[in-house]
Amino acid sequence: MSQLQSLALGVRLTVTNPVSESTSAFGPGVAKLCLGVREHGSLNASAKAIRMAYSKAWRILKDTEESLGVQLLLRDGAHGSTLTEEGNRLLDAYLSIQGKLSEEAQELFDDMVR
User: Fold this and answer.
1) 91 with 75: CB under 8 angstroms?
2) What's phi and psi for 81, nearest 5 deg?
3) What is the DSSP annotation of 7-68?
4) Residue 77's pLDDT is what?
5) Residue 91 falls within a domain, yes or no?
6) Which pLDDT belongs to residue 79?
7) pLDDT digits (tens, 9 = 90+) for 25-61
8) Has residue 14 been placed in a domain?
């Protein structure tokens, strides 16, 4: 068995706004924060779950929203946060595409290193 066959391939998907001057993008980290908001009901709890400072998580999401021109979170102060309709749609699409790309890329890699 080739040593290459034991390797796993990783694919990093990002969603960007082609007309934005910002380099912020919706990628794996933002997706993880958004998924945490969906699961835990707040950005603070989401940040804590991945051991990130709330201030950093807030800045990342704010920068991403500005770059994409899409509001991802509805913030309700002490009552937490929820994803907007567009935030949910973007997260669902991102997770689905990321999963399909990862599976297909691994299959292609496995076929090529045999």
Assistant:
1) no
2) -140, 155
3) --------B--TT-S----B-HHHHHHHHHHHHHSSHHHHHHHTT--HHHHHHHHHHHHHHH
4) 77
5) yes
6) 84
7) 999 999 999 999 999 999 999 999 999 999 999 999 9
8) no
Phi, psi of 85 (to 5 degrees): -60, -45
Using 50, 70 and 90 to split pLDDT, how confident is the model at 13? very high
**Spacing of C-alpha 9 from chain mean position:** 18
Question: Residue 72 is part of which domain span?
Answer: 26-113
CA–CA separation, 46 and 87 (whole Å): 15
Supply the pTM of this predicted model. Answer: 0.90
CA torsion sign for 4, 5, 8, 11 is positive
Domain count across the chain: 1
Q: Is the pLDDT of residue 1 over 70?
A: no
Provide the CATH number for the domain around residue 92: 1.10.10.10
The answer to whether residue 68 is domain-embedded is: yes
